[in-house]
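Here is one chain, start to finish.
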Amino acid sequence: MSPTHCHAASDSLDILRWVVGIGLYCSIKWHHDQNQKKKNDARAAQLAAEEHSLDAPDAAAGVR
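Its structure:
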């Protein structure tokens, strides 16, 4: 095997490692961002529910 051929195979493995590494990074970041979005949405819904219950305390207490 010639040194040039071996060097070319090494270059393609380096490129493959970069592509896979970038793909893994993007995948992990996307899942993390989705988890953060779910937490923020849940917190916003909780705050809205608390605010709504403060606006109408009679309805929450069952008074007509």
